[in-house]
TrEMBL record:
The protein's name: Elp3/MiaA/NifB-like radical SAM core domain-containing protein
One protein family per Pfam: Radical_SAM_C
Highest taxon in the source lineage: Bacteria
UniProt keyword terms in alphabetical order: 4Fe-4S, Iron, Iron-sulfur, Metal-binding, S-adenosyl-L-methionine
Domain Elp3/MiaA/NifB-like radical SAM core: 31-257
InterPro entries: ELP3, Elp3/MiaA/NifB-like_rSAM, Radical_SAM_C, rSAM, rSAM_horseshoe, rSAM_sf, YhcC-like
Keyword presence, Cell membrane: no
GO molecular function, one term: catalytic activity
NCBIfam families attached to this UniProt entry: TIGR01212 family radical SAM protein
Iron-sulfur in keyword set: yes
Names of the cofactor(s): [4Fe-4S] cluster
């Protein structure tokens, strides 16, 4: 049980960061270019539900240039990245906003291959839902996986059905696992997204979600705090005093104990989140990313713990 806490020491961390993964596997830092295909979701368009998840504000579209086509977005992102990091900087084309496999396969093929053939693109990352992986899409994903460094990101958020129902995900945990195993059994690198601080969840509930993650053994995980964003159903619930958010120290403590449970080889692609600061209602402490990251490092050191310390394959 557990691993040497200094496995990731050349990244000065006690957990397996994306930066460490990229440097170990590819010998360099790799950036992300965010793309918005202008797609919707089955819990928005009425096929499964309406209104979207209660915390969703456009599927993180505020990071993108969704008013222009895919190639134009890639040019804008290439200019942004290369002006900051140099003309040779390589990046992942990250199809981020809403559900990026929820479209006719030929539209997706055109968009994905536009990215694949674009200068400086190192690989592709696709954010989607586990219930939006029909057979024709899986064939396309297998094809892409043979040609580039592909990651498919699924929103798990929680393993608790009462929470899943409350947030209006409109996809049960069992449905989620079926989609996840489609990807895992095909050898496609998969990243699972989890949110801490969802309404009415206790610390024990969040640790149970981490234990479920450990059983699933994903290639990568994104962990973040719940953000209350203006204009969402969650914002109404928060303003009505229906639930309480985690304080920063509570979040840091939960993250430290979640990391102990996760497989040491799982890449932690995110350990705190970025929200649209112009629309962020709470928690305001989440906007100070450096303080949160530093707090996690300090907590892990004080507890003398690390990712995988309590992980067991059984």
């Amino acid at each position: 049980m557990g691993n040497n806490p200094f496995k990731y020491s050349n990244d000065n961390k006690r957990y397996n960061t994306l930066n460490y993964y990229n440097k170990q596997n590819f010998g360099k830092k790799i950036y992300k270019a965010v793309i918005d295909l202008g797609l919707t979701c089955p819990n928005i368009d009425g096929s499964k539900g309406t209104g979207g998840c209660i915390f969703c504000d456009g599927g993180s579209g505020y990071f993108t240039h969704g008013e222009v086509d895919t190639e134009a977005q890639l040019r804008l992102e290439k200019n942004r990245i290369c002006s900051k990091y140099g003309e040779s900087a390589e990046f992942i084309a990250y199809f981020q906003a809403n559900t990026n496999t929820y479209s006719p396969v030929e539209l997706l093929r055109k968009a994905y291959y536009t990215a694949l053939e674009f200068p400086n693109v190192f690989g592709i990352s696709i954010g989607t839902r586990a219930d939006c992986l029909p057979d024709d899409i899986m064939v396309l994903l297998k094809e892409l996986n043979s040609k580039t460094h592909l990651t498919v990101e699924l929103g798990m958020q929680s393993c608790h059905e009462n929470t899943i129902s409350l947030i209006n995900r409109c996809c049960s945990h069992e449905e989620f696992k079926k989609g996840y195993y489609k990807l895992k059994n095909t050898g496609i690198r998969t990243c699972l997204h989890v949110i801490n601080g969802l309404p009415y969840e206790s610390k024990d509930d969040m640790l149970e979600t981490a234990k479920e993650l450990a059983l699933l053994r994903p290639d990568a995980v994104k962990l973040q705090m719940l953000h209350v964003i203006k204009g969402t159903k969650l914002a109404d619930m928060y303003s009505n005093g229906e639930f309480k958010l985690l304080e920063r120290d509570e979040y840091i403590d939960i993250i430290a104990h979640q990391l102990e449970l996760l497989p040491p080889e799982t890449v932690i692609e995110r350990i705190t989140g970025d929200g649209d600061k112009s629309k962020l209602i709470a928690p305001m402490w989440s906007a100070d990313k450096i303080a949160v990251l530093g707090g996690i490092d300090k907590c892990l050191a004080e507890l003398d713990t690390w990712q995988g310390k309590l992980y067991s394959e059984t």
